[in-house]
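User: I'm putting together notes for a lab meeting next week and I want to include a structural view of one of the chains we've been expressing. I don't have a solved structure, so I'd like a prediction I can at least talk through. The sequence is below, exactly as it appears in our construct file.
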Amino acid sequence: MRRVFLDHAATTPLLQVARDAMLPWLDGRPANASSLHASGRKAKDALDMARETFSSALGCLFGEVVFTSSGTESCNLALVGVALAHPGQRRRILVSAAEHHAVLHTRPILERLGFQVDLVRVGPDATVDLDDLQSKLGDNVLLVSVMQANNEVGTLNDIPAIVAAARKHGVLVHTDAVQTFPLCGKVDGLGVDLLSFAAHKFGGPVGVGGLYVRGGTPVAPTAVGGGQEREMRAGTENIAACVGAAAACQRNIDSAEMIEAAKSGARDAFLLELGDTAVFSMPGSSKLPGHAHVRFPGVDNESLLIRLDRMGVEASAGAACSSGSIEPSHVLLAMGWSEAEAREAVRFTIGYETSVDDAFWAAAVVREAVSAVRSA
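Assistant: Thanks for the context. Below is the predicted structure for the 376-residue chain, given as structure tokens.
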């Protein structure tokens, strides 16, 4: 049966170039970059080359890239690590109400550390309300965390404007760039102090991510026991994963225009074929080229997703809880949607390898599935 994967915001297929780069490090050779012998030095050289690729992509210093196991760990390290390193008078942290749970779910930990975590309102397009942000900023704020692009609806925050507002009060800024890296822009242009990314979002392997930490920004480790990663993240680095991630990063940079055009072309074809079956959530908004977030009035998204999966189209909606059911999206609720509307929303996200033919076929399947659910 034909299948089309339209959930690239969740994860992406491993690029061949990444697989090829990883294979030599998966053949049984020793790969501990902290060892002083020849095998250890080879591993260290490979790790250094991978780090150099990421620092070049971000336009930062080599030592400002910290490898982690995922985007979630990177976000956790940014918020909790900064909090642990700052025992002073700044006891408030601001995060947008539409952040990924990797940021939002640090709140209980931060509160146990004595910090107050305040949510910043977002507008109908899930971007930060700058007036609300400015009203909450003050000299008692330590950190602001705002994602560059929303993982559900794909809209883009104005990170330089957020940084400019924070700087007036000496506040640090973290951005979750998991959906945009490595095409997120250089850190000097963004102005942020910390930036998180994850390799499996751009064709790299699962199990490796990174955190940019501007030089001089105090971050305490949340994993201890070794001196790896500038003593910010203890643990033997996954050389194969880091090397594969770097190869995928470079391929994205080298093919940026082609990738963006392919995504937007397939996305537009998908929406065109979908027609009036759906209500487009973000018409005209500045958004990622592969995102198509839509609502099907009168159609329960969980029932639709199950039917689509059986028919060969893989997509997503909301956040899956431990029972496997779909909870109303906190992002959509923060945007002002009702729970009923949120339960009608589906996220389709296109990859660079999704063809226009795939998009047309998938949209036709969606139309058929929606009709069947409505009839039922």
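A couple of points you could mention at the meeting. The mean pLDDT is 95. The domain at 256-375 is CATH 3.90.1150.10 (Aspartate Aminotransferase, domain 1).

User: Perfect, that's what I needed.
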